[in-house]
Write a structure and sequence with these properties.
The protein has a domain of 135 residues: Beta Polymerase, domain 2. The protein contains six helices and eight strands. Helices cover 45% and strands 18% of the residues. Strand 4 and strand 5 form a beta hairpin. It is elongated and about 85 Å long. The strands form two sheets. It has a six-stranded mixed β-sheet with strand order 2-8-4-5-6-7. The protein has a two-stranded antiparallel sheet with strand order 1-3. It is an alpha+beta fold.
Length: 237
């Protein structure tokens, strides 16, 4: 009886499954046998696709990276090309020969402004010496300046912006021409009684120490800034 029960227990005993990834250690097996035991002979097409998917994804991101780098390089080259063209056209536009100039000191400018103005004004003379040149040369410089081509916009680009940009361009021109001192070209403000509002103009001094007023919105130059309609209260140079 005991003999029959032992036979039944042996027959009913289940064999423990062996995982393909964790094979059970067996005696007498070589390394090649262990590797061969890890291979699943039932590998189907879905398994192959899942293995190749990371490779396809890697190639996709590599291609995307190359395209982005190409466009960045293209934009960079276009920016350099445009920048060089703008610089060249700007330099050609400002290629007015400044000659026959003379030095004028800050004290001389102060005396000129004092004698020119009929009312007491506030004068801001920022440097100790300036350059003065002929009226004809200044006329050419102002005509070649493109500030007057801007569109007038109240509070955004009106009289003060026109004048400030004009003055900045003249300062930059002085630097480009390697002048030891910048041209005596500045700003003036006052009250325009004809329209009941404040206004800003440019002005410069020529070799004869005469003051000329410039309307930066039209490039118009006139030698009589003082009138019954316009009262100047500030000069800056």
């Amino acid at each position: 009886m005991l003999h029959r029960m032992s036979i039944i227990m042996i027959c009913c005993k289940k064999k423990k499954p062996v995982s393909p990834y964790h094979p059970s250690p067996t005696h007498g097996t070589t390394q090649e046998d262990s590797i061969s035991n890890n291979v699943n002979p039932s590998t189907n097409e879905e398994d192959i696709t899942s293995i190749e998917t990371p490779k396809i994804t890697c190639c996709y991101y590599t291609l995307q990276y190359c395209v982005i780098c190409f466009f960045i390089l293209l934009v960079f080259c276009i920016g350099i090309f445009i920048g060089e063209n703008i610089t060249c056209s700007y330099n050609n536009e400002k290629s007015v020969a400044i000659n026959n100039f003379s030095l004028v000191s800050s004290q001389q400018i102060q005396n000129i402004l004092t004698s020119y103005s009929t009312l007491e004004t506030t004068n801001y003379i920022l440097d100790t010496q300036y350059m003065a040149t002929d009226y004809q040369i200044m006329q050419k410089i102002i005509k070649q300046n493109t500030v007057s081509q801007n569109t007038y916009q109240l509070e955004n680009f009106d009289c003060d912006e026109f004048g400030i940009v004009m003055m900045s361009n003249i300062i930059q021109l002085s630097n480009q021409e390697n002048l030891t001192n910048r041209l005596a070209f500045g700003l003036m403000t006052g009250y325009n009684y004809s329209v009941n509002e404040r206004h800003l103009l440019n002005w410069f001094i020529d070799n004869n120490h005469h003051i000329w007023c410039v309307e930066p919105q039209t490039d118009h130059i006139h030698g009589h800034c003082l009138s019954s309609d316009f009262e100047i209260d500030m000069y800056l140079v």
